[in-house]
Amino acid sequence: MDISYLLLIIFSITTIIGLYKLFPLAGEQGWKAFVPLYNFIVWLKIIKKPWWWIFLIITPGVNFLMYAIMCLLTAKSFNKRTSQDQVIAFIAGYFYLPYLGFQSTTQYVGPEDMSKKKPSIAREWTDAIVFAVIAATVIRTFFLEAFTIPTSSLEKSMMVGDYLFVSKMSYGAKIPNTPLSFPFAHHTLPFTQSTKSYLEWFKFPYLRLPGFGSVKNNDIVVFNYPDGDTVALGAQDQSYYQLVRDFGWKAVNTPNAINQYSGLPFGDVTARPADKRENYVKRCVGVAGDTLKIVNQTLYINSKPAYKAETMQYHYLVKTDGSTVPSKLLDKIDVTDYPSGYRVLGNDSTGAAYIQMNLPFNKVEELKKLSFVKSVEPMIDSAGRYAPEIFPHSPKYAWNNDNFGPLYIPKAGVTINIDTTNIVLYNRIIKNYEGNDLEIKGDKIFINGQDSKTYTFKLDYYFMMGDNRHNSADSRAWGYVPADHVVGKPVFIWMSIKEDNKNTARNDIQSGFLKKLKTSLFDDKERRARFFTFVSNDGISKSYLIPFLIIIAAIWGFFQFRNKRKSKTVKGK
């Protein structure tokens, strides 16, 4: 049995035993302690707390904190009010409750009456912090969570430096797999590089609450990075599986092994539960049941050309008369994704210059009209060229970024035929995402010890891609995104900060958050236009920054006016 469930059983038994002994002392019948949920409602009645606390008690992420608070209040209600008793009750309530119940001197005196006792500053701050932690945890778990765009894979739809809110209600909030975690931290404790912010003593199975809808084609989606189930802690920004493909398993997992990309140690290799994997944001181009194919950069879903955002970007080979492109012109045609956004490749014998540029396709014609530009051609990886970094990482499927598929996206309940050729498309689903034992022996496939020629999927899957098609690590690199990895939908950008420009030739590198905020808010009209905007699949709404500032100023002015009137009234008396 998993240690998580064993501990849960032990703690449940000790709690029930403790409540069974304590209930009669408070005038309640002991049998009520054996009725799930009802026993907690009776418990709340005894410590004189509102019945609706039951919703906080069953909320993962705050339920353990609420349990500790209830144990502390119980100790006070049964006349155990020393600092030692309160600390033990708060930290080890599972064992303190039966200990309290079996003591012959235990008596019920009711909750401490705080109305006659002025709370200390420490108590006031503690109450405020606990309330803030509980409220914020509930909000970020089930309603809205703050998120920052970390990469340029969705440039220009979502920009690096966008600070936004992600709606958990759009697709239904997930019950956390690991509810025992440090507040407001994702997978690593603050001020550390690799210390886990969560405990795996308790793990809950995948469960999603009802939402406003399901993931649809072209939705921009935040999800947990599927390849992040295993990470090398010294290279958390890189796919562990790609590192293994590049260097070999032994080279990555050997103690003190050096990452040849960074020159730093790979560090320890660890596994992460689904809810603690990195958060990514991409566009869902294919949903469960779709068949996807890319032909010379054109994406087809079920044999039909897919949606193409106006700002979708590709690499182009630009030939000029030898001139480079001025920085002001780069701004005008929206070249921002450095260093791949602008790279001089060299000159030919005639003096013509060749430049690799990452362009939104709606700016290509504008670039072609410039007098010094001779040609602009898309850089397309040829069909049939095998790219080992592209899913499914097998020579049997000679796919690359620009020519990919056809690939069926699995749907829950659908049964497919499997063999030793196509198993590379689904082995990770069968083993990692759906928890089966998988073995290949010769020309036979064994699933959970059974010779299998078919497989029925348990979950829906999605195919995610970035709009910045040549600078996006997406499903083309690591495959499907399971339904239990979907986090939510970006809905609102409240701030957008222009990050340091990596093209040093342009000589406009900024440093420091406040300086970048000033630049973004006052000097960069495109960034300023992103403040206080709503997010849609086609882009962002107009900025609501000015109306927001006007409302804030009006509220501030109202309270200032009211305070002055009160002051005059008091003086008049």
**What percentage of amino acids are in beta strands?**
15-25%
Structural class: alpha+beta
Task: Give the overall average pLDDT.
Answer: 86
Question: Over all CA atoms, what is the radius of gyration?
Answer: 29 Å
Q: If helices are DSSP runs of H or I spanning 4 or more residues, what is the number of helices?
A: 16
- Straight-line N-to-C gap: 75 Å
**Number of E-state strands:** 24
The helical percent reads: 25-40%
**Major beta sheet summary:** 9 strands, antiparallel
Shape: globular
User: Which stretches are low in confidence, meaning pLDDT under 50 for 5 or more residues running?
Assistant: 501-510
How would you characterize this protein structure?
By secondary structure, the protein is an alpha+beta fold. Among the domains are: 3-140, no CATH class; 312-378, Alpha-Beta Plaits (2-Layer Sandwich), CATH 3.30.70. 30% of the residues lie in helices and 20% in strands. Helix 5 (83-91) packs across helix 6. It starts with a helix and ends with a helix. 30% of the residues are buried.
